[in-house]
Inverse folding.
């Protein structure tokens, strides 16, 4: 099992990123809460990881904090919640906001996220209620970036990159486009636009 990776951030295109660990490029999927904390491309990063082994592929997931990985592992144990939906949940809600939803039986916030219907929201509230107290004991520790080379932009249009990322999280292309196009993109990065779009969707 790969517990964490420490290396140079080689590329980031939400929800995908690549970490160069001594010449080996590890491709990971990560929630947007992790992308918000990433350093610039070329700088050092430390990510907690979770490996999912399937018959057709090995998928590696990365998290900026230990708390996010603990929550991810708890989510994929819920009936009907796979890694993809768990990433969507972590991208749409912080660990603290998710915990508040569960404690308050607030299913209305959960069903606003793509892929979460009423039955899935009910299962989340019921099954996660007993697992959440242990999450509060986990320190949210993120990797500390160090100086590195200059950032290398992967896309020149942050809006298009943000729309693509939202589609990868499960939003339909017209909805993703509407969410992003409504935002003022002046001096905003792709991560900024995704954060604002997700905040708007949760209201």
């Amino acid at each position: 099992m790969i517990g964490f990776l420490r290396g140079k951030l080689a590329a980031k295109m939400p929800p995908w990123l690549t970490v160069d660990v001594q010449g080996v490029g590890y491709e990971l999927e990560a929630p947007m809460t992790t992308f918000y904390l990433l350093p610039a491309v070329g700088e050092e990063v430390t990510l907690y990881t979770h490996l999912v082994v399937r018959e057709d592929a090995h998928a590696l997931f990365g998290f900026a904090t230990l708390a996010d990985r603990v929550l991810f592992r708890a989510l994929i144990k819920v009936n009907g919640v796979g890694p993809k939906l768990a990433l969507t949940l972590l991208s749409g809600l912080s660990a603290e906001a998710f915990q508040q939803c569960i404690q308050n039986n607030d299913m209305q916030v959960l069903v606003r996220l793509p892929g979460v219907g009423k039955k899935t929201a009910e299962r989340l509230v019921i099954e996660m209620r007993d697992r959440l107290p242990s999450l509060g004991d986990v320190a949210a520790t993120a990797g500390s970036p160090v100086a590195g080379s200059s950032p290398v932009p992967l896309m020149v249009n942050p809006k298009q990159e943000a729309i693509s990322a939202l589609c990868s999280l499960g939003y339909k292309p017209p909805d993703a486009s509407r969410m992003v196009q409504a935002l003022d993109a002046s001096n905003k990065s792709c991560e900024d636009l995704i954060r604002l779009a997700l905040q708007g969707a949760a209201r």
